[in-house]
Write a structure and sequence with these properties.
Number of strands: 19
CATH topology of the largest domain: Aminopeptidase
Helix content: 25-40%
Radius of gyration: 22 Å
Low-confidence stretches: none
Strand order of the largest sheet: 1-2-12-3-13-17-15-16
Mean pLDDT: 96
Distance between the termini: 26 Å
Number of helices: 11
Structural class: alpha/beta
CATH architecture of the largest domain: 3-Layer(aba) Sandwich
CATH superfamily of the largest domain: Zn peptidases
Number of domains: 2
């Protein structure tokens, strides 16, 4: 099973590639797309999915939402990184470079001296969208030699976000513009391109590491591990219980967009399914009270070189179980009530649960969990797989934990 996770990581350099892969796998299992601008009908209740940019929501067995409510697993498709700006071409001396914009909160130093490709999507004049991935590395952000910064190892590396992150990608005077290069990637002319989105990615493949092959190392483990596990659990479940996965874009920048968890997409899909099933508005609102949501996003595993950064009684370990994340200030949505379905599912699946709470002097991040709970009023629990190097270009988790997450979510979907 872990090899399918590695394949997923390598196939998904951007949020739009995640959606493309997930939709293809859904369709291969007989689950059809419902266009967001089309009316939902009773034919769509058995199963279906909708797409909005880098967000995809899929469901099964929606006929009985009014009676049973629905189990939802939410995750996010985006990762921190460097996106290419409009009109990115720039030249410094004889170096041709690209101007980039920092997306989210990446560990910037981890992007130095890496073999970088470019991936994204192009929207053509006719409104169609074409995905692309450069077939080989094309850019690099070289670090300054230690001879020119001799105190870097003692005082630390300081990167200026604007001056120090522009990748080099050519030297010759005849180098094509970025948009001309982009047109070549999608086999069209620059005049046919209406708009585009592109970002850098690490071309090194996901792989297994460790003395006993107990670790996964890759880009985008946060949060592709949750997207892959949610999809696997949905596809593998033979339960007739209503179930849904909601994989959102823009979580790393706050979720405040039409495609993000802060937008209305999830609640609109739920209400349209309820209406297609003949429920009234009141019955729809009641169904939300019978529903439950899992927000699946990675957790910080205890770091052996920085033990003082963790709260020792609530510091999870790699390969020792899925993490339940709590925060009294509601940065996570977990409550004593909302965690119960996960505790039951873990018991049935034979999966160990660990806990995470941050130190009082180190603020934790947040997830789509509190946003979903606030927008819909659904009981929500925050869980995730423990990992190291979060937001690095090369992250690390255990090989057992992704498998455990699939088992846990599968049992969560199946249990009443």
């Amino acid at each position: 099973m872990i090899n399918t996770f590695l394949e997923h990581l390598d196939a998904c350099p951007t949020a739009h590639h995640v959606v493309d892969r997930v939709s293809a796998l859904l369709q291969s299992r007989g689950i059809s797309q419902v266009h967001v601008d089309a009316e939902f009908s009773t034919d769509h209740l058995e199963c279906g999915f909708v797409i909005n940019g880098g967000t995809i929501i899929a469901w099964k067995n929606a006929q009985s939402i009014a009676k049973q409510g629905i189990r939802i697993v939410g995750a996010h498709t985006d990762s921190p990184g460097l996106h290419i700006k409009p009109n990115p071409d720039t030249r410094t001396l004889n170096w041709h470079q690209l101007q980039v914009e920092v997306y989210g909160g990446p560990l910037l130093n981890s992007w130095l001296d890496r073999d970088l490709g470019i991936a994204g999507h192009v929207v053509l004049q006719d409104g169609s969208t074409v995905l692309f991935v450069s077939p080989q590395p094309v850019a690099r952000i070289p670090q300054l030699a230690i001879h020119l910064d001799r105190e870097v190892n003692d005082k630390g590396l300081i990167l200026h976000r604007h001056h120090h992150l522009s990748p080099i990608w050519a030297t010759t005077d005849s180098s094509a513009s970025f948009e001309a290069w982009l047109a070549q990637q999608v086999s069209t002319s620059a005049s046919r391109i209406a708009s585009w989105s592109a970002q850098l990615f690490d071309t090194q493949k996901a792989q297994i590491l460790g003395r006993d092959s107990e670790f996964v190392v890759s880009s985008r483990i946060d949060n592709q591990i949750s997207c892959w596990a949610a999809l696997s659990a949905l596809l593998n479940s033979d339960s007739d219980r209503p179930m849904m996965i909601a994989l959102f874009d823009h979580e790393e920048i706050g979720s405040q967009s039409s495609q993000g968890a802060g937008g209305p997409m999830l609640e609109h899909v739920l209400e349209r399914l309820s209406s297609a099933g003949g429920s009234s508005r009141s019955e729809y609102l009641l169904s939300l009270q019978r529903s439950h949501c899992v927000s699946a996003d990675n957790a910080h595993a205890v770091h052996p070189n920085y033990v003082d950064r963790h709260e020792p009684n609530n510091a999870p370990f790699v390969n020792e179980g899925v993490v339940v994340k709590t925060n009294a200030s509601q940065r996570y949505a977990t409550s004593p009530k909302s965690v119960v379905p996960i505790v039951r599912a873990a018991s049935e699946a034979g999966v160990n649960l660990q806990s995470f709470a941050s130190r009082n002097n180190i603020a934790c991040g947040s997830t789509i969990g509190p946003i979903t709970a606030t927008r819909l009023g659904i009981e929500t629990v925050d869980i995730g797989v423990p990992q190291l190097s979060m937001h690095s270009i090369r992250e690390m988790c255990g090989t057992q934990d992704p498998v455990d997450l699939v088992s846990l979510l599968g049992e969560y979907f199946s249990r009443s």
